[in-house]
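Shape matters. Shown next:

___
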Amino acid sequence: MRDVAIVAFAQSAHRRRTDELSEVDLLMPVLHEVLGATGLKANEIGFTCSGSADYLAGRAFSFTMALDGVGAHPPISESHVEMDGAWALYEAWVKIQTGEADTALVYSYGKSSPGRVRDVLTRQLDPYYLAPLWPDSVALAALQAQALIDAGDTDEGALAEIGARNRAAAVDNPYAQLTGGVPAGDHLVHPLRTGDCPPIGDGAAAVVLAAGDTARALCERPAWIRGIDHRIEAHSLGVRDLTDSPSARLAAERAGAFDRPVDTAELHAPFTSQEVVLRKALGLGDEVRVNPSGGALAANPIMAAGLIRLGEAAARIHRGESDRALAHATSGPCLQQNLVAVLEGESAHE
C-alpha cells in the first residue's frame, strides 16, 4: 500500500442562501485556496474527483458545469461520484494506490437553498415501498431518535446538550453557519426539536491528496490516511436496528480505528441522535474530542459535509493539534452508508 496523505484543505463560508452565486462561483475561491496552499498548478494534479448531487441542482449532469471552476485547460483526468465528497476522496485514494497518479484534487459542493431539502432527500429511499409515502429526512431521523429514547440510550435533555456542545465548539470555526447559544426550539418532528437538526445552507470544500515524499514536500505535517473503508446498511429501514450502526463499526474496524486510541473524532452526524449512535458504534469515550469544528450541526452543506469532516480532522493534524484522528462521513437516511478514515501525523507514524 502506498502512503497517501491529505496535504491541504479549504472550505467556503457556509451560508443559508447564496442566490447570487452559481456553483462555479462557490467553488472557484475554494479551489484556488487549496491549490495555493500546496503551490501546485492545475497541470501538476494527477487526478481530479468531485462529489455532488444533480437532485439538489435540479438539472442533469450539473457537475459538468462545476468543472468550469477547475478550468478547461489543460485537459485533466477527472471523475465524479453522485455522493458526498468523502466518497470522491475514497476514489481518489484508490487511484493513487494504483500508481496512476501521485496527487489528486478532490472537491464537493452543495446548494441546498433553492429547494425543499426534506423532500429532495426522499429520492434516496426505496422507490417501491418507502419513497411513495414521502417520509422526509427529519421524520426518519425522529424515528431513530425515538428508538434511542425507548431503548434508554438517551433522552431529549441529553440530545439538547449534544446540540449545544457542537454549536459552542463552532464559535472558533470562522466557516460555521450556526454558532453559540442556539436555542433548542420547538419540536420539529417529535422528539426532535429544531436545535437537534442541521441548518440548511450552501457551501463547498476541497482537499489535495499526495503520496509519499510528494506529500512531505507539499506539507510540513501531512495527515496520513492510515486506513479508510466504507460500508452500507440494508436498504430497508424496517429490517435495521436504528439504535446501532454495524456498518460504521465495520468500516472503523477495517480502517484500523480500534488498533490504537484516537484523540479527535469528526463525526458526520446531522442530527443529535446520530451522534449517540456513532459514539456507541465507534467506541468513543469522553476522552476523545468529538467535533471540535462544530460538526454538521454547525454547517451541513449536503454533499460536502462529509468531506469537510475529513478536511477538519486533517487540518488539526496539520496544525499539530491532533496526532491520530477519526473522520466519519454518512449518506442516506438514518446513517445508511458510512465511511471511516483514520488520519495520523508524521510523529505518530514514526
Summary: The longest helix spans residues 23-38. The longest strand covers residues 202-211.
